[in-house]
Design brief:
By secondary structure, the protein is mainly α. The protein is built from ten helices and two strands, in the order ααααααααβααβ. The radius of gyration is 16 Å and the shape is globular. It starts with 12 loop residues before the first helix and ends in a 9-residue tail after the last strand.
């Protein structure tokens, strides 16, 4: 019997694997949270599939998403990344990633971990929605609005409410698997 999945992931095996094993699973470690923040920020204005298909290239280009290394990137590294055809070569998004790595570490200093900070917006527990159709899944929420606003006041870039909501879905802060999906 074939597994029933959320309809958005039926494009190919890459998407199905991401849906079945990653999307919506709670993430509490700062390294993975930063990885998804970076990938989600590069998605702004593009499809998630475009970013997901380049995930391994991003991982290599951005030192395994090591935010401590990324925070120290200089203009020469930005130019190197701009020449990397394996990633999305958008100077604003690249410099935003460097900025966000620095802001990320500031939040860690204040809260102990970035995870404590970000999960506080959902009281440390995933929000489980029960959408029946893809049309029932919102692009933003009051929580993503509040988190995006707070991130902006902390100096983060490319982390608007839609990007933040997608990040919350990817890292399991919000579970939007459809009610008939095998992953719900």
């Amino acid at each position: 019997m074939e597994k029933i999945r959320c309809g958005w992931c039926e494009k190919d095996d890459l998407y199905r694997d991401y849906h079945d094993h990653i999307w919506g699973k709670p993430v509490y470690d700062d390294e993975t949270i930063f990885e998804f923040m970076t990938l989600e920020s590069f998605q702004a204005g593009l499809s998630w599939y475009t970013v997901l298909s380049k995930r391994e290239n991003f991982k290599k280009a951005f030192d395994d998403f090591d935010y401590k290394k990324i925070a120290a990137y200089d203009e020469a590294k930005v130019e190197e990344l701009m020449k990397n055809t394996g990633i999305i070569r958008n100077r604003m998004k690249i410099t935003a990633t460097i900025n966000n790595a620095r802001r990320f570490m500031e939040v860690q200093k204040q809260f102990g971990t970035f995870s404590k900070y970000i999960w506080s917006f959902v009281n440390g527990q995933p929000i489980i929605n029960h959408p029946k159709t893809l049309e029932d899944v919102p692009a933003t929420s009051e929580i993503s609005d509040a988190l995006a606003k707070d991130l902006k006041t902390r100096g983060f870039k490319f982390m608007g409410s839609t990007v933040v909501y997608a990040h919350m879905q990817a890292t399991g802060m919000i579970c939007d698997h459809l009610v008939d999906c095998h992953c719900k």
